[in-house]
Amino acid sequence: MNRSRVDKMVDELIGEAVLSLLKENGPINTHALVQRLRSMRIHEKDPERQEAISAVIAEISDSTDDAFKHYKAVQHSVPREGVRTMNNDNVVPLFGNGKPADPKKIH
Which residue has the higher pLDDT, 78 or 8? Predict the structure, then answer.
């Protein structure tokens, strides 16, 4: 199968999965998308589409793992002082301490 046909099939599969989640008023997130794709793979009769679904699931899972690795690295490198919550484990400041580096620069 040529590359452009594979790309088109991948786009269609992701679109089908997202549309089915939307029709059910379900959450639209990576976990829900992967679960829906797994369900689609189980019920799919065409081996070519099954293979494409497996590739999509692997790609999404890999990219999600990479994103979480970055998030965990940021989470462990940020000092906890100055964060005001009852449970500091679930709050990670992503943009520093909220104070501008130069007080004259507002934007």
Answer: 8
Neighbours of 63 (CB within 10 A): 11
How far is Cα 62 from Cα 68, in angstroms, rounded to an integer? 10
Q: Is 17 exposed, middle or buried (0-12, 13-18, 19+ CB in 10 A)?
A: buried
Half-sphere exposure of 45 (CA within 13 A, CB side): 0
Question: Which whole number is the average pLDDT over 35-42?
Answer: 94
Give 54's contacts (C-beta < 8 A, 6+ positions apart). 41
Q: What is the mean pLDDT of residues 43-59?
A: 91
Q: Which residue is associated with the tokens 């994103």?
A: 67
Cα 92 to Cα 7, 72, 85, 87, distances in angstroms:
36, 10, 11, 11
28 or 65, higher pLDDT: 28
Helix 30-43 vs helix 47-77: crossing angle, to nearest 10: 160
